[in-house]
Amino acid sequence: MRFELRLRCTPVSHTEGVREKRYRYENALTTSILEEIMNAKLWALKKSPWVFHVCSASCNNCDIEILDALTPKYDLERFGILLVGSPRHADALLVTGILNRKAKERVLRVYEQTAKPCLVIGIGTCACDPNIFRNSYNLAGPYDKHLPVHVYVPGCPPKPEAIIMGVAKALGQL
Amino acid sequence: MTELCRQLEKKFEVTGLKEHTPKRIYMEVPRRQISDVAKFLFQEHALRFCIATATDTRRGFEILYHFGEDKTGIIYSIRVFVPKDDPRIASLAPSLPAANWIEREIHELLGVDFDGHPNLEPLLTAEDWPRDRYPLRRGE
Amino acid sequence: MKRVVPIGPYHPLQEEPEFFKLQVEGEKVVGLEINIGYNHRGHEYISPTLTWDQAIFLVERICGICSNSHPFAYVCAVEDLAKIRVPERAEYIRTIVDELQRIHSHFLWVGLAGHFMGYNTVWMWFWKYREHLLDLLELITGNRNHYAMMKIGGVRRDIREEDIPAIEKTLNLLEEKTALFTRAVLDDPVIRARLEGVGILTTQDAIAYGVLGPTARGSGVAIDVRKDDPIAAYSWIPWDMIVFDDCDLFAKAKVRLLECLESVKMIRACLERMSPGDILADVHEIPPGEGIGRVEAPRGEVFHYVRSDGSNMPVRHKVRAPSYMNVASNVAAVKGCTIADAVLVLASVDPCYCCTERIMVMQDGKQMGDGEYLIKLSQKTTETLKTRYGDPESKLRGLM
C-alpha cells in the first residue's frame, strides 16, 4: 500500500510540463514519521474525501450533475464528501470537459496545488475521450495526456448515481 | 418588400435584395457604406443588432450583419464582401457596443481588421495560439 | 487605492468559465475586465465536417442547461432554409419540451442565487423539486439532460397517452410549490435588501449592449422571441410576457420566477390542444441557400445561421448564444456595486453557473484571501441583514 502511494504521488512519467522540484519530497519518504502522516491522510481520505471540481471546456451538464449529487435526493454529504472551494483543501479532483488550450496551463496549476495524494476522477464522456470534439483546433486533451486519471465515469452526462459509484470505486482502490 | 427595404434602397447602394421568407430579408451593400447602414438601422429605426457571421468564400470574406426588428420579427441580414488582399472594414463597435465582441472574434478566427475598434485583442483562442493561423479560413 | 480582484476562471459557465478582473476602490467596484475562452471548443469549425443530422448532436453539447434550445434553433434554421413544414403534433411536443427546459433552468438559477446569498434552504429546496422535473423529462425524452428530441422536420419521440397523467401530476405539484415559494422569497425583507437597487442595468445600456432574455425583460426591454418571431406552438397558445422596469437584480429574479408559472400554464395548454398525428416530416435533401433560426432559451435569444450548397453538410454554421451579449453587459451593470454584491450581479445574467468557484484577492501583489472568499463576503452581508430583519430561514423551513 505504501509503495503504491508513493507511485501515485510522483506521476512525473505521465505528466508533461509539471515541474519536477514539486515531487522531490519522495526522497524524504524514507523517514517513518512522514509515512505515518501519509497513512493517516489516506485513512482520512477514504473516510471523508473532499472534492474540488475542475471544469475545462465542458457543456456544464456534468458539472450540474455533480452539484445535483449534493441535493437532497442523492445527498453526497452523508458519505462525508464535501465540495470545497480551493484545491489546497481537496483530496479528489473531479475533472469534466475536454481540455482546451487556454485552460490547460490553469488546470495543471490546480493539479500541482492540490495536496498529494489526490485522486483524479474524470466525469463524463468528454473527460474520458474528446470524441465529437476530436477535430477541434482548440483541443489539448484528453486529460490523461497531462494528468494521471484514476477513474473514468462515462455518460453524457453520467447520472448522479454513476458519479457516486465512480467515487466509491476510486476510494475502494486505495 | 417592406417599407424599410424601400428606404434602404433609396439611401444606399443596395444590390441582391432577396426576401427568402416574409421574415428573412437579405441584401448586399458595399463595404464603405456599412457604418452608415448600421447607424441608420440602429439609431433611426431601433433595430437590434443580433450578431455578425463571417465566412470565407471565393469572392472574398463575406460578413453578414444580422439586425432584428422585434416588433415585426423580421431579420435584415446585410451582406458585405471584404477582399482577401485587403481585409479591412470599418468597425461598428464605437457606436454599437453590442458589436464589440463579435468583431474581436472575427478578427482572430478569420483575420479581418476592424478600423476604429477600441480593443482588437483576441477573445477566444489561447494566448499561445499563433496569430497568423486563422481557423475559419478555408485551406488553413 | 485601486485593487484588482480576479474572479475565475474556474467556474463552469454557459459558454465559458470566465475570468473577471474587478477593479475596486475601497468597497466599490469601478471597472471590470472580462477574459473568456476557457470553454471554446470550436463548434463552428467542426460543424461543416458533420452531416446535417449529425450536427444536431454536436450542437446540443454547446450548453447542458439550454440543451434543447440550441438544437431547436438549428433545426428551425435548416427548416427555414429548405422551407420545410413541420407537423402540428411535433410543434406542440417541441414547445412542451422547451418549456420544461425553461422551468428546470430557472429553478437552477434561483437555487444558485440563493446559495450565493447564503440561503442554502432555497438551494436545496428548488433543486429537490427540480428532480421531479428531470424525472419527467426522462420519461418523455429518455434522458435527464441532452434530450436529443429535435430532428430536422419534427421530433424524435412521441408523448404517449399513458404518460400524460404523470405529466399533469408533476405540473400540479410544481405549480403549487413554485407559487408558494415565490411568494415567500419575494416578500422576504432580507432578500429584497440584497437584490433591490443592486446591479442596475439601465434600459439604454440594455439596448446598446443588445442584451436578451430575462436580463433585458428585467430592464424594461420587452423582447421575447416567442412573441416577436413565434415558432412552434407559441402563437397558438395564450401566454403573457413578463417585463419589469426596475432594472435591478430583484426585477430579474421576479421575471424568472413568474416565467416558471407561465411555462406551466403553457404546457397545460399544449397538452389540451395536441391532437394525434405525425411527428416527423419527410425530408430528402437540403437545397442550396441560407437560413436563420432563433428560439427563446431560458437566457435569451439563441441565434443559428446555416448555409448550404446542396450537399449533405453545412457550409457555414454560426451559433450565437444569449450569454454572448449578456455577459458583455456586466461591464455596465457591475459599476458602483460593492464586492459582496458583485457575485450576485455577475450571476444575475444567469451564465449557466456563477463564476466564483476559484478566486484570489490580491493586495500589493500578495494573496490575501482564498477559495470561497467572495461567496463568504456575500453570505456575511446577508447575515448582517438578518439581524436587522429577523431570521427568515426558519419561516421558509416552516413552509416545507
Automatic annotation (TrEMBL), chain B:
SUPFAM superfamilies per record: Nqo5-like
GO molecular-function term, one example from the UniProt record: NADH dehydrogenase (ubiquinone) activity
InterPro entries associated with the record: NADH_quin_OxRdtase_su_C/D-like, NADH_UbQ_OxRdtase_30kDa_su
Superkingdom of the source species: Bacteria
Gene3D superfamilies: NADH:ubiquinone oxidoreductase, 30kDa subunit
Protein family per UniProt: Belongs to the complex I 30 kDa subunit family.
Name of this chain's protein: NADH:ubiquinone oxidoreductase 30kDa subunit domain-containing protein
TrEMBL record, chain C:
Residues annotated for Fe cation binding in this entry: 66, 355
Ranges annotated as spanning the membrane: none
Co-factor(s): Fe cation; Ni(2+)
Segments forming domain NADH-quinone oxidoreductase subunit D: 117-286
Keyword annotations from UniProtKB, A to Z: Iron, Magnesium, Metal-binding, Nickel, Oxidoreductase, Ubiquinone
Entry annotated with the keyword Nucleotide-binding: no
Domain of life the protein comes from: Bacteria
Binding site residues for Ni(2+): 63, 66, 352
Entry annotated with the keyword DNA-binding: no
Family matches, as InterPro entries: ComplexI_49kDa-like, NADH_Q_OxRdtase_suD, Ni-dep_hyd_lsu, NiFe-Hase_large
One Pfam family linked to the record: NiFeSe_Hases
GO molecular function: NAD binding; nickel cation binding; oxidoreductase activity, acting on NAD(P)H; quinone binding
Annotated residues for binding of Mg(2+): 44, 319
PANTHER family in the cross-refs: FORMATE HYDROGENLYASE SUBUNIT 5-RELATED (PTHR43485:SF1), HYDROGENASE-4 COMPONENT G (PTHR43485)
Protein name per UniProt: NADH:ubiquinone oxidoreductase
Organism: candidate division TA06 bacterium DG_26
